[in-house]
Specification:
It is a single chain. This protein has about 110 residues and is of the alpha+beta class. It has a single domain, classed as Trypsin-like serine proteases (Thrombin, subunit H, Beta Barrel), CATH 2.40.10. The protein contains two helices and six strands. A hairpin with a 5-residue loop joins β1 and β2. The radius of gyration is 15 Å and the shape is globular. The termini are far apart. The mean pLDDT is about 80.
Length: about 110
């Protein structure tokens, strides 16, 4: 079984268009919630490494993810996300971990 040959089919069936830096688009599978099997408390970083924390992420072809760097902005479903980490699986796919970029900070409710 050639896993690399299945990547375009998998992305075509389950993926959606995402906007990469520079206006380029790619097809990726978006998980807005993160890993539901993450340990309790991981959403606030209690007792787990940062790499184990649940976060929104994309699963995309490694060829498309190769140009991404930490801190880059990706637009998914009209919302902006910052790339926090990329984890290639060695089989042609990369998990790109994201952090939603928000601008709605009420006055007095912002770290200074």
């Amino acid at each position: 079984m050639d896993l690399a040959a299945d990547i375009p089919l998998t992305l075509a069936d389950f993926g959606e268009a995402v906007q990469l830096p520079g206006g380029q688009t790619a097809t990726a599978i978006f998980d807005p919630v993160g890993d539901p099997s993450a340990p309790p408390g991981s959403e606030v970083g209690l007792g787990v490494r940062v790499s184990q924390q649940a976060s929104p992420h994309l699963l995309m072809a490694s060829a498309d993810a190769a140009s991404l760097s930490d801190g880059d902005t990706i637009t998914v479903r009209g919302a902006a996300y910052r790339v926090t980490r990329s984890d290639p699986d060695g089989q042609g796919m990369t998990t790109v971990r994201l952090q939603k970029i928000t601008t709605d900070h009420p006055a007095g409710n912002r770290w200074r």
